[in-house]
From TrEMBL:
It is found in: Cytoplasm. Keywords: Aminoacyl-tRNA synthetase, ATP-binding, Cytoplasm, Ligase, Nucleotide-binding, Protein biosynthesis, RNA-binding. It comes from Sphingomonas glacialis. One of its GO terms (cellular component) is cytosol. This is Tyrosine--tRNA ligase. Homodimer. L-tyrosine binds at residues 39, 176, 180.
Amino acid sequence: MTEHTSDLLRLLSERGYIHQTTDAAALDALAAKEIVPGYIGFDPTAPSLHVGSLVQIMLLRRLQQAGHKPIVLMGGGTGKIGDPSFKDEARKLLDHDGIAHNVASIRRIFERFLTFGDGPSDAIMLDNAEWLDKLEYIPFLRDVGQHFSVNRMLGFDSVKLRLDREQSLSFLEFNYMILQAYDFLELSRRAGCRLQMGGSDQWGNIVNGIELSRRMDGTEVFGITTPLITTADGGKMGKTMSGAVWLHEDQLPHYDYWQFWRNTDDRDVGRFLRLFTDLPLDEIARLEALEGAEINAAKIVLANAATTMCRGEAAAVDSAETARRTFEEGAAGGSLPTFTVSSDIGIVDALIGLGFAASKGEAKRLIKGGGARVGADKVSDEAMIVSVGAEPVRIAAGKKNHGLLVRA
């Protein structure tokens, strides 16, 4: 492991956040002598971000923990276009009111992970609509467009993916990478920003911004990308049978969020503790060394720490107690996901309603494989009707997903 002089690069390296860095030595020297403002962009395409964005949120948290200044850039301008990076098709365009609603909602998430304020290392949130909405087309083409090579842009993996599959890439989306580079230039001018961070799929966009800042202003700025976070079985981080793992409780109950972390693969426990919690590294080393059934204790520590950070301590305590009662005592804990019904319901619809299956076909396969239970009884008939009275009915899918059917 490379020896770093700055707390920033040492912290990021020790916890496994660094995939690529532009001029690491110069960035290390800068971070060792002064506060470095750094940013990550987030497009407000929904009222909540999901776990797939969490490594970037934690990266901003680490930046602040190392004494530097996080800049959360909301893509109120670029969100009207949509990032084409490694997407199969164009993203749905949002109107002004929809974007404003999502930005306000997402800010609540960041306030749990970062300290906002007016201090030197306090986080700030900016919206690129502030400058992108005011751009004049001809001056922008003349002043900024001249610094971009179409030949080079066509060579980016994110663009080639769409072209190789003969999928449409609109001129609107093609402009996205120019606008993102311009964001870096504007942030360096407005907020003294010296660092852009992002996932490995953003490397080309980050390099564009670095080169644009150098050519137009002669400013030295830097970039860091994180590795693609996948699970030990090769799956995409944050994707489950029931869909995205949302950070907002409005989109996902506390218990489901806690349970997502509790269900972590044994092989991922140490890595996820380093990335997604503030536990000391020596404690993490102790926990990831546990074997057999003892590794479950480490998973509970991970679930409690990750849930406390995102949802609050009360949510973590309540979820852990619900899990204990459910799995150890067979009781119906109060934080289990619920599905309210007005009458008796088929088991297939119940599984879908609780989020344990995404379709009727998936629910039927779950039943056929012996993975569905009503109370303590295994379901063998996909046409089974579940009678719901005054008391909730407990439904299980596999060993780890439990929920309640509640009569309206």
